């Protein structure tokens, strides 16, 4: 398996494991928070207007940087559907964004190009610094960050900070030189935070957050589509607040210490067992696997239970981690779950520097 990095495509075994010293990066100047990219994932649909309400009441100085709030797919939101013509979150490749628009162009392709003009253009110096795209999953994923690059140090540090604030029973505080101190203050939420790393060049990255210089997709679940759960809403709201908090810390110019972080590198997708003639599923997720996202599968572990009552086991030689288990939106894509390899990476110390 190869991963794209600063030195080109590298085997996973050669990814950095030792400290890389101090790296200076430009300050964050603009952020966008997008909800409703999938119109039936309602946490983002309701969090975006909540953020707009906060801005109206408290003013633009509420956050450390200007924040653009976007309802990404308003037609799908109005119909409470994942999409109208085409999955919007698969429309942000460079090829689709540069394709000509005609009378037959799907609505979501047109909307993707509008969003690219608003928040990008993708891959340019004018692109928004951070896009935080809000998603729900029916799988038991906790809060999951999705990224395309193991060398995007901003996203890696945000991930580390989210873990510290939402997973660790302690929370980060600042001292006079760096973010490296803990407090015993309890958090508002307690939820596992993980990062999925996709092995896709940025030009082929298909999701909305890839338009930004530093794109971050927040997946929070489990939550049924078309439903809002208070606990899931609060996790998402707290996650966005933590990202904004991190930006304030970073822009202050203090050194933010690096660390080892665990990430899950996408390996492949697994479909349900299917009838060779009708292509209808012959099985469902096994009860022992259901809701066990990011567990470690060993050879022989149960994956599926056929409708006739037989167990289908895991037959890979290498133990891997399943995620998006039994995601409702993936039935149409022929995916029962994805598999990932867990890897520990070392991220460097970073410091913001004005241009």
UniProtKB/TrEMBL annotation:
Its main location: membrane. It catalyses: an N-acyl-aromatic L-alpha-amino acid + H2O = an aromatic L-alpha-amino acid + a carboxylate; an N-acetyl-L-cysteine-S-conjugate + H2O = an S-substituted L-cysteine + acetate. Its cofactor is Zn(2+). It is found in: Apical cell membrane; Cytoplasm. Keywords: Cell membrane, Cytoplasm, Hydrolase, Membrane, Metal-binding, Zinc. It is an enzyme of class 3 (hydrolase). The keyword Nucleotide-binding does not apply. Its EC number is 3.5.1.114. It comes from the Eukaryota. Residues 260-342 form the AstE/AspA barrel-sandwich hybrid domain. One of its GO terms (cellular component) is apical plasma membrane. SUPFAM superfamilies: Zn-dependent exopeptidases. CDD domains: M14_ASPA (cd06909). GO terms for molecular function: aminoacylase activity; hydrolase activity, acting on ester bonds; metal ion binding. It is a peripheral membrane protein. Gene3D superfamilies: 2.20.25.160, Zn peptidases (3.40.630.10). Residues 29-246 form the Succinylglutamate desuccinylase/Aspartoacylase catalytic domain. PANTHER family: ASPARTOACYLASE, N-ACYL-AROMATIC-L-AMINO ACID AMIDOHYDROLASE (CARBOXYLATE-FORMING). Belongs to the AspA/AstE family. Aspartoacylase subfamily. This is N-acyl-aromatic-L-amino acid amidohydrolase. It comes from Electrophorus voltai. The lineage of its organism: Eukaryota, Metazoa, Chordata, Craniata, Vertebrata.
């Amino acid at each position: 398996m190869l991963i794209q990095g600063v030195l080109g495509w590298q085997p996973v075994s050669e990814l950095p494991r030792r400290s890389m010293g101090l790296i200076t990066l430009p300050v964050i100047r603009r952020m966008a928070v997008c909800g409703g990219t999938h119109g039936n994932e309602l946490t983002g649909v309701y969090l975006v207007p909540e953020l707009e309400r906060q801005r109206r009441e408290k003013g633009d100085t509420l956050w450390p940087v200007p924040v653009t709030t976007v309802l990404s797919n308003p037609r799908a939101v109005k119909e409470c559907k994942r999409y109208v013509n085409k999955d919007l979150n698969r429309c942000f490749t460079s090829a689709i964004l540069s394709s000509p628009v005609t009378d037959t162009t799907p609505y979501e392709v047109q909307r993707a190009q509008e969003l690219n003009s608003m928040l990008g253009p993708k891959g340019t110096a004018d692109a928004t610094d951070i896009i935080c795209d809000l998603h729900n999953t029916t799988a038991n994923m906790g809060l999951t960050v999705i990224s395309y690059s193991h060398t995007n140090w901003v996203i890696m540090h945000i991930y580390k900070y989210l873990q510290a604030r939402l997973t660790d029973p302690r929370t980060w505080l600042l001292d006079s030189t760096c973010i490296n101190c803990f407090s015993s203050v309890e958090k508002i939420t307690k939820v596992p935070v993980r990062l999925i790393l996709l092995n896709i060049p940025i030009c082929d990255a298909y999701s909305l957050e890839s338009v930004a210089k530093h794109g971050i997709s927040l997946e929070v679940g489990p939550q049924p589509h078309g439903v809002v759960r208070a606990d899931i809403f609060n996790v998402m709201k707290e996650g966005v607040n933590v990202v904004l908090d991190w930006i304030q810390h970073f822009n202050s110019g203090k050194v933010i210490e690096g660390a080892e972080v665990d990430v899950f590198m996408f390996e492949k997708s697994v479909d349900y067992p299917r009838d060779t003639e009708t292509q209808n599923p012959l099985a469902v997720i096994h009860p022992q696997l259901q809701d066990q996202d990011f567990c470690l599968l060993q050879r022989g572990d149960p994956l599926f239970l056929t409708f006739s009552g037989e167990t289908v086991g895991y037959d890979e030689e290498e133990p891997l981690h399943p995620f998006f288990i039994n995601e409702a939106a993936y039935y149409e894509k022929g995916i029962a779950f994805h598999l990932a390899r867990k890897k520990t990476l070392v991220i460097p110390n970073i410091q913001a520097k004005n241009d």
